[in-house]
Prior knowledge:
The chain is mostly helical.
Amino acid sequence: MTTTKKPARLSATLTAEEQADLKRRKRAAGQFLRATRNNADLTQREMGVKIGFNYYTMVGSVESGATRLPGAHWAAWADAVGIDRAELAEQLLKEYEPEIYLCLKAKRRALWK
């Protein structure tokens, strides 16, 4: 008799603790993005135009943590607020994709040894 391996849990079935952590990380990313926009003295409407959002209210959704900033807009956001693209990517990966962030950070450390 063969046994079948239980499939990996899908990300759509997060535990309550994982859901709370995800919300916290999206809010933290949104706070970072809001701070960069405010430091650049841009309104949400101006930012929406600069990064190519069809609706400027999307900026508010991203900054509140309701949704993530799509990866296709990361470079445009960094350019609009005048920060290094890699710095913005690092901060967003840290919150949106912590596992990937930690892998890249470990690889970078290994290269400098």
